[in-house]
Amino acid sequence: MRLIILGPPGAGKGTQAARIAESFGIPAISTGDIFRANIKNETPLGKQVKEVLASGGYVTDDITNAIVRDRLFEDDAEKGFLLDGYPRTSAQVDALDAILAEHGHTLEVVLELTVDEDAVVARLLKRAEIEGRDDDTEEVIRERQAIYRRETAPLTDVYSERGLLVKVDGMGSVDEVFTRISEALEAVARS
Fold first, then answer.
1. What is the pLDDT at residue 63?
2. How far apart are CA 97 and CA 78, in angstroms?
3. pLDDT, tens digit, for every residue of 143-171?
């Protein structure tokens, strides 16, 4: 299965992506995890990304597309993958289409986790405190939410027009949300 999980920062995409990937035996590919690893290792990319994230922005399409392309060409992604945090813009949608076409593949489903923004902000502030994420202040979190609404949320229209979008309520316990996701994916697989 080749799928994308969408939703605003803090919607629980990473948590659910790991469970979905395990369930389907595919890699969960998170651009955020790739960026954080580069920041931690203080690579040139990591330093560049850290600066962008500290201001509440997103990394450029060129950098992100190159990282995703490299990752999708790894052996473990040949039979499928779950993308978390990508694509974020219409230019990235086009880049992903081109990357998949190189392999003769297409997407099968795009999951969108729908959540309450204030609840997500509270969740992210708590996570920042627990995990020591310096870049997760309320101001930065709200700016990321605004960027998501402006740049990424319109992608749901693109994928809806293609008949790929499946909306899932992202509020509730991890298990409740995963049950809803599993039921949605089973319905897609049957159709």
1. 84
2. 15
3. 989 988 888 888 999 999 999 999 999 99
Quote the CA–CA distance of 107 and 82 in Å, as a whole number: 10
43 pLDDT exceeds 90? no
Is 79 tagged catalytic? Answer: no
The catalytic residue among 36, 69, 133, 167 is 133
User: How many Å apart are CA 46 and CA 44, to the nearest integer?
Assistant: 5
DSSP state of 126: H
Instruction: Encode pLDDT of 79-103 as tens digits.
Output: 999 999 899 888 999 999 999 999 8
Reply yes or no on whether 127 is catalytic: yes
- The answer on pLDDT for 57 being more than 80 is no
Q: Let me know if 13 is a catalytic residue.
A: yes
Report residue 1 CA to chain centroid gap: 16
Give the length of the chain.
191
144 is catalytic: yes
What are the start-end ranges of the H helices in 81-173?
Answer: 90-103, 117-131, 138-147, 155-161
Which residues 6+ apart lie within 8 Å of 26 measured at CB?
1, 76, 77, 79, 80, 81, 82
Beta strands (DSSP E) in 48-121 are: 81-84, 109-114
**Beta partners for residue 105, in sequence order:** none
pLDDT of residue 191: 80
